[in-house]
Amino acid sequence: MGAQLRVYKRRIQAVTATKKITKAMEMIAASRIVKAQRKVTASMPYATELTRAVTAVATGSNTRHPLTTEAEAPARAAVLLLTSDRGLAGGYSSNAIKAAEKLRERLAAEGKEVDTYIVGRKGVAYYGFRERKVAESWTGFTDSPEYADAKKIAAPLIESITKDTAEGGVDELHIVYTEFVSMMTQNAVDGRMLPLSIDEVAKESTEKDEILPLFDFEPSAEDVLDALLPRYVESRIYNALLQAAASEHAARRRAMKSATDNAGDLIKSLSRLANAARQAEITQEISEIVGGAGALADASAGSDK
Questions:
Q1: Are the beta carbons of 89 and 217 closer than 8 angstroms?
Q2: DSSP of 177-226, one letter per residue?
C-alpha cells in the first residue's frame, strides 16, 4: 500500500508543477492582450482614412487600376493566411486554417487558381505535412507584429497583383485572419483586399452620413493610386496582424486557464485517492498491531497453563 501512496504523491507533485506553468502562461497572455488591443485601436484611424482616400480617387476618376478595377474573367487569386508561431492556444490556428480551406474551395469552384501565402509556423507546418505548395511564408513575429513585418509581407503580394496573370500574377488578393471581438470571442474571417469594392465603401460612408471629399489629382489619378496601393495593402495586413495577435493571446489565455482549472481538479482527485490510500494503510497497520497483540496474549495464556 505504501508504494501506491508514493505514486499518488509523485503525480500530485508533477501536476502541481504543471499548474504553476499554465498559470504563469495565463497571466503573461492576459497582460499582452491589453497591449495588442491598444495597437489595434491605434491602427484603425489610419486604415480608415486611407481607404476613404483611395475611394475618393477611384470615384473621382475613370482610371483603370489593379487597386480598384475588377478583372473581366478573374483566373487566379492569392490567399494570405495568418496563423501563430506557437501552440497552446486552443483552436486558434486550426480555425484560421479551416477558414482558409473553405475560401480555397470557394475560389476553386469559381474556376480560379489559388496561390497561398502563409504567416506563422502552424500554417507552414500544416501545408508542409500535406506537401502542398506555398508561394511564400513568414514566421517569428505573430505574437508581436510590427509595421515592418506588414511591409515585408505586402511586397510580394503587391508585385503579384500588378503583374499579368500570364506572367504569374493574380487578379485578386484575399486574406484570412482571426478577428478580435472580445476577450471571449475571436472569429476566423476571410476578406478580399483587392480589388477594393468602391461601392461597398461608398455605401458605408452614406450610412454613416459621411461625404466623400472631392480632390484634384496632381500629377494624375493613376499616379496617386500607384502611391496609395502599397500603403493600402500594408495597412490592411498590419491591422489583420494586430487583430490576429490579440486573438492569439486571448485564445492562449483561455486555453491556459482551462488547463490550470483542470490541473486543480486533478490535484483534488489525486489528493482524495492519496488520502484513501493513507487511511487504508493506517487501517492495515492497526489491524496488524491488534492481531499481533492478540496472538501474544493467546501465547502468554497458553504458557501459564
A1: no
A2: EEEE-SSS-EEEEEEEEES--HHHHHHHHHHTT--------SS-HHHHHH
Whole-angstrom Cα distance, residue 300 to residue 198?
107
Q: What is the CA radius of gyration of the chain?
A: 31
As a whole number of angstroms, the distance between CA 278 and CA 276 comes to: 5
Give the model confidence (pLDDT) of 192-246 as tens digits.
888 876 555 555 444 555 555 566 667 777 777 778 888 888 999 999 999 999 9
Rounded Cα distance between 292 and 24, Å, is 52
User: Checking DSSP bridges between strand 172-180 and strand 76-82, what pairing results, if any?
Assistant: parallel
How many alpha carbons lie under 13 Å from residue 84 in its C-beta half-sphere?
23
Buried b (16+ CB within 10 A) or exposed e, 202-214: beebeeeeeebee
Q: What is the DSSP letter of 165?
A: G
